[in-house]
Design goal:
heterodimer, A: ABC transporter involved in vitamin B12 uptake, BtuC, two-stranded antiparallel ribbon, B: 316 residues, mainly alpha, two-stranded antiparallel sheet
């Protein structure tokens, strides 16, 4: 029971990280109609920036803030140099162009930081555990991730639903020509949205960095999970991305933790461990398949799409 | 009398096929065994890319998980060889049948969606199969499975002989291209291309669009399974890495680089991409830093691929 609670918290934490990544992806797709495979590269760059800046400055918070700004700037540069030219083109062009960017970024990282991974050590005040309820200790850092991601998620919702900028973003998603005709600089808006998405991806990357190692290709596997999230949630919908991300995070984490024991009730020990490994990796894809069979446009399809 | 563009394209294709036919001779004369290995690989991947071209170029189905069938075909060979079944007459039909079954299941689910959902769901299914293969501890898991004996064909052909294997790959590739040519020009292919241009209209006319697309998807998957069976025999090894999602990306690159919806495009693209990779990797260890932006440039400025450039040359 205690283990279940802990795994649920882990799942929530992973799901919220996925949400940060998926939110950027779904914003960029919903507004610019751009399939951005290189989103995972921005996640990776965020982690590398953080590892570097934290080491240089000696301060965890300052390093992370600098990394966030650096990812934002990088996102804006990538948008202006390359992706801007892809708007309005075929999805196949997006896939190929951003696939090229992935190759570029992976190799760039290998050139600058070398093939070995980096680590991002946590400061003392984040690497302790707190007692949540009597008997249950949980790492402060994971709690901090949950709090940060929730805070960012709520702010994102408020920005998109309650501010003038958010109104323009939503207007751009439903009818870009009309927004342009009303005198809004749509190119600037697009660049801003892309930068925002990049910063969110960078934030997810740098928050994940202390838990896993910072390495080349770290953005690719999680990018595919983020795709699964936005497909389940409905492409273009932030609310859908949030619900689906938490759901996928929980299913994946809890499945990995408990499937082996569950299958051991039915199968022999060795067969169960093999089957559980395969099945727990497959679980969220199965969920996605079921969702798509029942609702081909995801659970919360964005209106007008 | 100037050369018309159609003739130019024919000349390029004929020259390419002639080079491919004579390559073992060059390899034997110059002692460059590596060229033969490289081009065997190119032929196999060209076959896989051609199968992708059927759904991507002709059918407009943007599958991002096509490398899965390379892996499925390969693993079918590997697992059977591991179980002691080395006869190609048993192995290969099973590899094709398993690929077809997987394509049927994946296609039946994926084709319910369209557009970007289709891209992502095919990608996700391919990753799912990748993880299943990584979890197959009995067959090497992540590390892959070594194949100790190549498929045997009752003494008709010896796959361990590099030249014979090369010509087998070439024959299968050219045979498949002929089959694809017949297919896309038959009624079936015309319906598929009609669906690509305007699916709603085809449905309104009364074609069972879903069934046509599914059949097309299964044919492509099966053909790619054949390429997987060849690849397993070529490398004597199968591993989950052969169906990692970047592999699917490579196949798309080949198709687009060569020219989508053109019969010989994927072959031209496979030759161009792999020779380019080979050349760049001799210049610098960090060759992908050149290849990545190059892809972006092709997407931005040369949409028809190499085949499109050849067609453009008629204006000069």
């Amino acid at each position: 029971m205690l283990l279940l609670l802990e795994q649920c918290l882990n799942g929530l934490q992973f799901g919220l990280l996925l949400f940060l990544l998926a939110a950027g992806l779904t914003l960029v797709f919903g507004i610019m109609d751009l399939v951005n495979l290189a989103h995972g590269s921005l996640y990776m760059m965020g982690a590398y920036f953080a590892a570097t800046f934290v080491e240089r400055t000696g301060s965890f918070v300052a390093g992370c803030v600098m990394a966030l700004v650096a990812t934002l700037v990088l996102g804006i540069v990538v948008e202006i140099v390359a992706l801007r030219r892809l708007y309005g083109r075929d999805h196949l062009d997006h896939v190929l162009g951003t696939f090229g960017l992935i190759l570029f970024f992976n190799e760039l990282v290998r050139l600058i930081w070398g093939p070995a991974g980096l680590t991002l050590p946590l400061p003392g005040w984040l690497s302790i555990s707190v007692e949540l309820i009597p008997g249950i200790y949980y790492p402060t850092y994971r709690l901090a991730i949950i709090a940060t991601a929730l805070l960012v998620g709520i702010s994102l919702y408020l920005v998109v639903m309650r501010t003038r900028l958010g109104m323009l973003i939503r207007a751009g998603a439903s009818n870009r020509e009309m927004v342009g005709a009303l005198g809004i600089d749509i190119r600037l808006l697009y660049t801003l949205v892309f930068g925002l998405g990049a910063a969110l991806a960078g934030l997810a990357g740098l928050m994940q960095a202390p838990i896993l190692t910072v390495q080349i290709g770290m953005g690719e596997n999680i990018l595919i999970l983020a795709f699964v999230v936005i497909v389940i949630g409905g492409i273009g919908s932030i609310r859908g991305a949030f619900i689906a991300a938490v759901f996928v995070g929980l299913v994946d984490t809890v499945g990995r933790a408990f499937l082996p024991d569950l299958l051991r009730l039915l199968l022999s020990a060795s067969a169960a461990s093999t089957a559980a490994r395969a099945l727990s990796s497959m679980l969220i894809y199965l969920v996605m398949a079921v969702v798509l069979v029942v609702r081909p446009a995801g659970l919360f399809p964005a209106p007008g799409r | 009398m100037t050369v018309s563009w159609l003739d130019l394209r024919r000349i390029v294709v004929a020259a390419l096929v002639a080079v491919l036919l004579l390559l073992p001779l060059y390899s034997w004369a110059s002692g460059d065994a590596f060229a033969l290995t490289l081009f065997t690989r190119i032929l196999i991947l060209a076959l896989a890319a051609s199968s992708l071209n059927l759904i991507l170029g002709y059918g407009g189905m943007m599958s991002f998980g096509h490398a899965a069938y390379l892996g499925i075909g390969g693993y079918a060979i590997g697992i059977l060889a591991d179980a002691g079944v080395t006869s190609g007459f048993v192995q290969w039909p099973i590899a094709l049948a398993v690929s077809a079954l997987f394509a049927l299941a994946i296609g039946a689910l994926s084709l319910r969606t369209r557009g970007v959902y289709f891209i992502m769901i095919t990608l996700a299914f391919a990753q799912m199969i990748y993880y299943v293969a990584s979890g197959l501890d009995a067959y090497g898991g992540d590390d892959g499975l070594t194949i100790y004996r190549r498929s045997t064909f009752a003494g008709l052909i010896d796959l361990s002989d590099k030249v014979q294997f090369y010509y087998l790959c070439l024959a299968l590739l050219l045979g498949s291209l002929y089959g694809l040519w017949r297919l896309v020009n038959a009624r079936f292919g015309l319906v598929i291309q009609g669906v690509r241009s305007n699916e709603r209209r085809m449905r309104a006319i009364g074609f069972p669009v879903y069934r046509y697309k599914l059949a097309c998807f299964v044919i492509a998957g099966t053909l790619c399974g054949l390429a997987g069976a060849l690849l397993a025999n070529h490398t004597d090894f199968v591993s989950p890495a052969m169906m990692y999602w970047t592999r699917s990306g490579d196949l798309i690159v080949m198709v687009v680089l060569g020219g989508m919806g053109s019969l010989f495009g994927p072959l031209i693209g496979a030759v161009a991409l792999l020779v380019l990779e080979e050349a760049l990797s001799r210049v610098t260890e960090y060759w992908q830093i050149v290849l990545g932006p190059m892809l972006l440039l092709v997407v931005l400025f040369a949409r028809g691929g190499i085949d499109g450039l050849i067609a453009l040359a008629r204006h000069d």
